[in-house]
């Protein structure tokens, strides 16, 4: 990272893929593409407030490609329609990223990912290193018209839950990644590559097998804005897989927690079968360094990766199912496309798997059902009796 990544506006400032964030000093080819040294004067004179292109150059392409990681952040937001994002589209708010992610002394306001700094779970962000933002920062806790039932939900349901019915609505996002399938080479010793329906690789010999999806319905969890992370030195029970690499923190009854939408990315990753810990794999580098993408030897790559971290491993390599949670907060749909009540308040609805509380329309209590039907029957009998009495009284008055 440097100043120009966020502030230059020519679009010509490029980093070389294998130079650890540095541009080239002379024309250099990489995989058939030539990278040129920046025109420093032109680039420096173009600096301005960060645009979507500046932010997106990293955040849209994280994880190795467009839409790989987040699902709600990809290049489609550069020219977003109102149907895709009411905030970032020209016919909507025409927001850039910094409209919400404001800064003070280059400390960028964020939504979540509060990594605990101590065992007491006190966060560095709680010490005001970075301010936190959310929908209510602009829309308040009662964003709907007076008397609208949705205003009664904002204390337990995040705005994103209703207003982002699906993500990856233009470009696909990677939902699954199986590293155990990596290593297939063709007759020339090059990685095998196969593409799927979206023009995206569904198999690559370097990385394994993938699943891409569009119009993905989020999964929902209680979330207070913090995450717990599984560290490479933490042990786990492989019989309880899938292992959650990160876990949303939150619970019913916590006034800071809301029902929140997530992209849940599944993966199959290397782990130490004897020590029951995750492994660091050295992927990129020279053949002599033990890099997997040169030798296609898992043991050699793990040896190099663990040695670099100063960690031991047993030499018994296995693969474990894992999950990773990405909060969904972009690609806000227009009001008319927000979820209807029945989307959640129904059997088999979106919150079918979120337990621990009673939800009308989804859950049933035999006692409440009996009481409800008795009230209905009582009301019906009352109406009938009242009607009969009115009819009889009318006949007597007519006499």
Distance between the termini: 96 Å
Rg measurement, Å: 27 Å
Q: How much of the residues is beta strand, in percent?
A: 15-25%
Number of helices: 8
Largest sheet: 9 strands, mixed
Order of helices and strands: HEEHHEEHHEEEEEEEEEEHHEH
Helix content: 10-25%
Kindly state the mean pLDDT as a whole number? Answer: 89
What does the overall shape look like? globular
Structure summary, number of beta strands: 15
Describe the structure.
- The chain has 399 residues and is α+β, with helices and mostly antiparallel strands.
- It has a domain at 74-144 and 151-343.
- It has helices at residues 3-7, 40-45, 52-59, 136-139, 159-163, 292-295, 298-309, 366-398, and strands at residues 28-30, 33-35, 103-104, 107-108, 173-178, 193-195, 201-204, 208-213, 219-223, 226-229, 243-244, 246-249, 258-272, 277-278, 317-327.
- Strands 5, 6, 7, 8, 9, 11, 13, 14 and 15 form a 9-stranded mixed beta sheet that branches. A two-stranded antiparallel ribbon has the order 1-2. The chain has a two-stranded antiparallel ribbon with strand order 3-4.
- Mean pLDDT is 89; it is low at 113-129.
Give a short overview.
The chain is α+β, with helices and mostly antiparallel strands. Helix content is 19%, strand content 18%. The protein has helices spanning 3-7, 40-45, 52-59, 136-139, 159-163, 292-295, 298-309, 366-398; strands spanning 28-30, 33-35, 103-104, 107-108, 173-178, 193-195, 201-204, 208-213, 219-223, 226-229, 243-244, 246-249, 258-272, 277-278, 317-327.
